[in-house]
């Protein structure tokens, strides 16, 4: 199974978290909040599109509104494949981050 | 604000595809609105535009990605099309490659010509010193200057930083341990030669050579010739059997892009030992100066102008400077076209040939594309945008263009050694060194692709697909005329080139075979080097014993180069004392006139019966007689070199130089022995080899130290006009290629027209026309075309080549017939090349073309 890039992983998780509310803007703001990094919308957008292309997300159009200058929202939802890969990623992460705090302690001690 | 909003919309739409754009653009707008409410309009705006700009880099990625996937499809289609029309595609590509190859070769030649002498480090500050001489009311530019000029210029003028001077030594006998050769590329120079000019050394100390009078430096080839692989430094070579020189250094062979050429350099001081060089009236040395870094050229010239006149008041020579960069191309002081003009001419030809090839290519592509109009119609119906069709055509022509380019490079690489041989250059096509040139070529290829593709592209993409599918034929009236004009233009060009070839060769023929005023058949000359002329009398009596030798005489110069510059101190009765004419002279033996075959018109020739002939007799030519204008020319007083004498005879004007020079006034004097440098022999045409053997043996008997050097005057003439032979060949090849390309164009046009007329031909045949009459009908149109081309080309060619011929004081009169023949030959070739297609069409079965009516 393929590994997701960090950003892709974050994006995918955010979509899962936001459920119905997941579209470009909300995903972007959520990731800004989580990483506290000043990225541009494009930075989030391209992974979104890549994930859609790969089939982990599916996208559909929403109703146009005035606010958006006549464009509708593009909503993203997670797919079956998307859920699968998240489970895989979770397994990998779990393995790596297992006993993280204990690892940290052991380093502190030996450095002294 | 609205405008800006629209702009950002456009940008986003442009970069992203429609779906992405839909979401993205909306998102950033939404965020902008909220942000504007919270943090203020301007910071929000700033963020907004940052977002818009940040997506731009991805444009490169996505656009290229998208185009490459389209490329693959187009390439496949293009290859399939080439396969379908293999013959004509190959001819088309070959035509373009040929045109490109020729253009590349010629431009390489042109660049080489412009880059002569540029390899010297100081090249922008180096100047050749030249003199302007005034005599009477004529001016003459001399590139040979006086010896003291260099050092005096350096000493007296701070603007002159340094100087160097040298003199070619003509033919010099070099001996080393049994190896004896006459070297013809020997100069004597002072040691600053290598300081001013950048001729790198292989071994030896470049700063400390040529300081002593017996120092010599040689080039790599000479070192190899005399010393093989052993170290030449310190070895002693003997010059002219008299002087010994020590080899102090070896320099790299000088490349062909240098006007200053030499193999061996003797120290300048060696010349001093022969006789001193402080004279101000012997203008046979070459002086170069290096201008100081901040010196102004014009200012310096102004200052040095009267240097010679100041030191030698009885003459009038102005000194001026010729920049090194002008030496190769602009040394045409004697009038006539400069090399620079010729070079530009070649450049024009190069561009012209390329243009022809491109026009041709365009024509045939368009004709070919006609077959595919159905495909285009289909494509439009299926939603192909006009842009895509244009794109496809462009792609196709770009591909063709690059393939042709690659083939052209291959052709160039193949032909280069022959070309180099022919032009006596050392041109190399190197990807790394000439990357700029190469890059330029690639760019030009690209543009050729675009331009040649745009014509069919624009033309075809504007069709209404409905018309095409219905099968309505294209009228294309505009196209018809345009193509015809193009082909006509090409043929006119070819005709001009063909007549050029004829002109050059006929002039060459004329020069080689013209009556020189003397008899050059079986005329042999022997060069008497060193002091071998002491043996002249003995040689003469010994040689006359051989029946194969008809007549023996001697002269200062050989007959094909039969005069020595300007005589000085000339005077005759009634001559204007201020008038200082340029009179050629030759010192000869008694029977020179008879041996060489000059024609006496008045008086008598030199003769042994009149011993005073050696001191007081002059024979002059008709031009000089006219100049003097005395009623009784025989017996008139005449003085040259301050030696008074009487004119005893007048000879008919004869060519003492090549036919490139006008015959001027000339005087012959009968000076004896020490002035003779050549033995001139008239030999019988039978048993030439045994005669020459006898001559060789006799020479060796009397002059064992000097190898025999002799030549036939006739051979000299072939060498003399070598430059014109080269030129002729070049124009010949150019015209062959031009004709080839023009014929290609014609073939293209013909296929086009025949295709359109297929039904018409079918109907004619069905009614009962014969193959012959149809062929005639088809070709009539083209004959008219080519005749118009002739009508345009012939006057242009006549005028242009007339101008070129005016350069020659002695020339053929080509007559309009020559040009008409060029036109006719073009016509014949054209008819031949289209004959296949015409006959094929005329013989076609009408059933095939009318089947679907």
Q: What's the average pLDDT of chain A? A: 84
Low-confidence stretches of chain A: none
Q: Tell me the strand order in the biggest sheet of chain A.
A: 1-2
The fraction of residues in strands of chain B falls at: 15-25%
Largest sheet of chain B: 13 strands, mixed
Total count of helical runs of at least 4 residues of chain B: 29
Shape of chain A: elongated
Q: Which percent range fits the helix content of chain A?
A: 55-70%
Query: How many distinct beta strands of chain B?
Result: 24
Overall 3D geometry of chain B? globular
Question: Could you give the distance between the termini of chain B?
Answer: 63 Å
SS-derived structural category of chain B: alpha+beta
**Annotation, overall tally of beta strands of chain A:** 2
Query: Which stretches of chain B are poorly predicted, pLDDT < 50 over at least 5 residues?
Result: 469-473
Pair with the biggest interface: A-B, 21 and 20 residues
As an assembly, this protein is heterodimer
Helix-strand pattern of chain A: HHHEEHH
The whole-number mean of residue pLDDT values of chain B reads 80
Percent strand of chain A: 5-15%
Helix content of chain B: 40-55%
């Amino acid at each position: 199974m393929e590994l997701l890039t960090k950003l892709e992983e974050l994006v995918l998780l955010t979509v899962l978290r936001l459920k119905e509310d997941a579209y470009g803007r909300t995903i972007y703001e959520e990731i800004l909040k989580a990483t506290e990094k000043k990225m541009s919308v494009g930075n989030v957008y391209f992974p979104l599109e890549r994930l859609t292309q790969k089939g982990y997300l599916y996208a559909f159009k929403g109703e146009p509104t005035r606010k958006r200058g006549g464009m509708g929202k593009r909503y993203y939802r997670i797919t079956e494949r998307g859920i699968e890969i998240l489970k895989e990623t979770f397994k990998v992460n779990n393995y790596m981050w297992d006993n993280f705090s204990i690892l940290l302690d052991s380093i502190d001690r030996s450095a002294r | 604000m609205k405008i800006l909003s629209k702009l950002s919309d456009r940008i986003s739409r442009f970069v992203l595809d429609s779906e992405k754009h839909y979401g993205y653009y909306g998102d950033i707008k939404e965020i902008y609105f909220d942000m504007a409410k919270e943090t203020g309009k301007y910071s929000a705006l700033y963020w907004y535009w940052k977002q818009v700009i940040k997506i731009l880099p991805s444009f490169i990625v996505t656009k290229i990605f998208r185009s490459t996937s389209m490329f693959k499809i187009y390439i496949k289609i293009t290859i399939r099309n080439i396969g379908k029309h293999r013959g004509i595609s190959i001819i088309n590509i070959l035509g373009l490659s040929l045109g490109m190859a020729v253009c590349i070769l010629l431009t390489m030649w042109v660049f080489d010509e412009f880059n002569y002498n540029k390899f010297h480090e100081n090249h922008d500050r180096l100047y050749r010193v030249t003199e302007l001489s005034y005599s009477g009311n004529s001016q003459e530019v001399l590139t040979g200057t006086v010896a003291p000029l260099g050092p005096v210029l350096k000493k007296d003028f701070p603007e002159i930083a340094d100087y160097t001077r040298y003199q070619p030594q003509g033919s010099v006998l070099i001996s080393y341990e049994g190896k004896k050769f006459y070297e013809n590329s020997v100069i004597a120079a002072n040691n600053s030669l290598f300081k001013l000019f950048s001729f790198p050394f292989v071994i030896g100390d470049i700063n400390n050579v040529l300081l002593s009078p017996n120092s010599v430096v040689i080039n790599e080839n000479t070192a190899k010739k005399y010393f093989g692989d052993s170290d030449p430094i310190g070895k002693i070579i003997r010059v002219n059997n008299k002087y010994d020189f020590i080899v102090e250094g070896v320099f790299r062979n000088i490349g062909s892009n240098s006007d200053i050429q030499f193999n061996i350099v003797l120290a300048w001081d060696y010349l001093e030992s022969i006789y001193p060089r402080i004279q101000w009236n012997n203008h046979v040395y070459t002086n170069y100066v290096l201008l100081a870094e901040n010196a102004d050229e014009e200012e310096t010239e102004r200052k040095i102008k009267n240097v010679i006149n100041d030191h030698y008041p009885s003459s009038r020579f102005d000194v001026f400077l010729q920049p090194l960069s002008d030496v190769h191309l602009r040394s045409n002081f004697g009038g006539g076209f400069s090399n620079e003009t010729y070079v530009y001419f070649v450049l024009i030809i190069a561009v012209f040939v390329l243009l022809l090839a491109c026009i041709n290519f365009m024509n045939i592509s368009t004709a070919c594309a006609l077959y595919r109009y159905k495909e285009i119609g289909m494509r439009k119906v299926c939603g192909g945008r006009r842009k895509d069709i244009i794109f496809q055509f462009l792609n196709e022509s770009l591909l063709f263009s690059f393939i042709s380019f690659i083939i052209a490079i291959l052709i160039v690489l193949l032909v280069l050694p022959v070309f180099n041989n022919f032009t006596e250059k050392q041109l190399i096509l190197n990807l790394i060194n000439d990357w700029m040139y190469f890059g330029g070529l690639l760019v030009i290829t690209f543009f050729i692709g675009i331009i040649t593709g745009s014509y069919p592209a624009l033309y075809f993409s504007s069709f209404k697909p409905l018309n095409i599918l219905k099968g309505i034929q294209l009228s294309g009236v505009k196209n018809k005329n345009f193509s015809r004009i193009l082909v006509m233009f090409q043929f006119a060009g070819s005709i001009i080139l063909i007549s050029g070839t004829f002109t050059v060769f006929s002039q060459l023929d004329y020069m080689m075979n013209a009556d020189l005023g003397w008899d050059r058949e079986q005329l042999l000359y022997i060069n008497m080097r060193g002091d071998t002329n002491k043996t002249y009398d003995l040689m003469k009596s010994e040689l006359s014993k051989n029946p194969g030798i008809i007549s023996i005489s001697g002269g200062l110069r050989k007959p094909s180069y039969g005069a020595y510059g300007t005589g000085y101190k000339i005077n005759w009765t009634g001559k204007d004392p201020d008038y200082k004419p340029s009179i050629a002279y030759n010192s000869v033996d008694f029977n020179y006139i008879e041996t060489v075959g000059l024609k006496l018109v008045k008086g008598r020739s030199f003769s042994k019966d009149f011993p005073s002939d050696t001191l007081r007799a002059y024979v002059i030519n008709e031009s000089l007689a006219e100049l003097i204008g005395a009623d009784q020319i025989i017996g008139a007083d005449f003085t040259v070199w301050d030696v008074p004498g009487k004119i005893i005879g007048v000879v008919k004007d004869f060519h003492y130089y090549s036919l490139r020079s006008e015959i001027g006034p000339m005087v012959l004097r009968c000076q004896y022995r020490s002035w003779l440098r050549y033995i001139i022999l008239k030999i019988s045409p039978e048993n030439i080899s045994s005669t020459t053997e006898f001559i060789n043996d006799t020479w060796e008997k009397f002059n064992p130290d000097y190898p025999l050097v002799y030549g036939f005057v006739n051979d000299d003439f072939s060498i003399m006009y070598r430059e014109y032979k080269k030129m002729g060949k070049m124009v010949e090849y150019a015209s062959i290629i031009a004709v080839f390309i023009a014929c290609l164009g014609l073939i293209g046009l013909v296929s086009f027209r025949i295709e359109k007329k297929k039904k018409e031909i079918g109907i004619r045949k069905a009614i009962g026309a014969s193959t012959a009459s149809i062929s005639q009908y088809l070709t009539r149109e083209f004959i008219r075309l080519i005749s118009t081309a002739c009508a345009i080309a012939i006057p242009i060619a006549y005028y242009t080549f007339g101008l070129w011929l005016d350069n020659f004081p002695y020339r053929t009169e080509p007559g309009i017939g020559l040009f008409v023949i060029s036109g006719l030959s073009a016509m014949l070739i054209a008819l031949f090349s289209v004959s296949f297609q015409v006959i094929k069409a005329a013989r076609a079965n009408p059933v095939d073309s009318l089947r679907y009516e």
